[in-house]
Write a structure and sequence with these properties.
With 203 residues, the protein is α+β, with helices and mostly antiparallel strands. The protein is 52% helix and 7% strand. The radius of gyration is 17 Å and the shape is globular. It binds glutathione.
Length: 203
């Protein structure tokens, strides 16, 4: 298998963390330089017509796009350790928290970054006003999650799950880029630092 990735990009990093947690060792990493628009070449568009990373290319030549779809595929192929839940309630809770974090935190933080940061002008049709409004939404969400994470080691299910990967990678990458200081959010900061000590997060 080949995973098309890019150093520091948060979406492929989620897959790399997932792969490391599972101990999968038959994946070749192909790094693209997004700054040099290597993801927009005709060759890469044949693999990923949406010009995004990650993309997982199987030995059969079949391609899976979208971070969660790739991780779901890998979970089926390599079930242990379980990351998406084992019983109906666990599965529902992990999906619920994954979706909540995506829509309440990651999306506004991502829009805040993509629509206001000068480095993103090449990749985004920027709308500064929209970006600033999204940043404000993100700050309100951060306050909510700060209360929520009081004394919690993991987001849900009392174990490390895919929802934690979504939460921690998003915050690690996007908070600073929105010029927000995570030290102002003590519980979130502790939660992130604890998770970041996992060997998988060194990728
Ligand atoms: N929904 C996609 C998003 C993938 C995505 O946006 N990847 C970013 C890197 S983190 C990318 O390829 N950006 C290139 C661009 O915006 O042109 C997923 O979850 O895989």
């Amino acid at each position: 298998m080949k995973i098309y990735s890019s150093p520091v990009a948060p979406s492929p990093r989620k897959v790399l963390i997932f792969i490391a947690e599972k101990g999968i060792d038959n994946v070749q990493i192909v790094n693209l330089d997004l700054g040099k628009l290597e993801h927009k070449t005709p060759e890469y568009k044949k693999i990923a017509p949406n010009s995004r990373v990650p993309a997982l290319e199987l030995d059969s030549g079949e391609v899976i796009l979208e971070t969660t779809a790739i991780c779901r595929y890998l979970e089926c192929k390599y079930p242990e350790p379980n990351m998406f839940g084992t019983d109906p309630m666990e599965i529902a809770h992990i999906e619920m928290w994954y979706s909540r974090v995506s829509f309440e935190l990651m999306m506004p933080l991502m829009h805040g970054f993509r629509h206001t940061h000068p480095h993103m002008s090449q990749l985004e049709n920027q709308n500064n006003e929209f970006g600033l409004a999204q940043r404000e939404l993100a700050v309100n969400s951060l306050k909510h999650y700060e209360e929520l994470m009081c004394d919690k080691e993991f987001l849900t299910c009392k174990k490390f799950t895919y929802a934690d990967i979504q939460m921690v990678t998003s915050l690690q990458f996007l908070v600073r880029l929105n010029k927000i200081d995570i030290n102002d959010y003590k519980n979130l900061n502790t939660y992130i630092n604890n998770i970041a000590e996992r060997p998988s997060f060194s990728v």
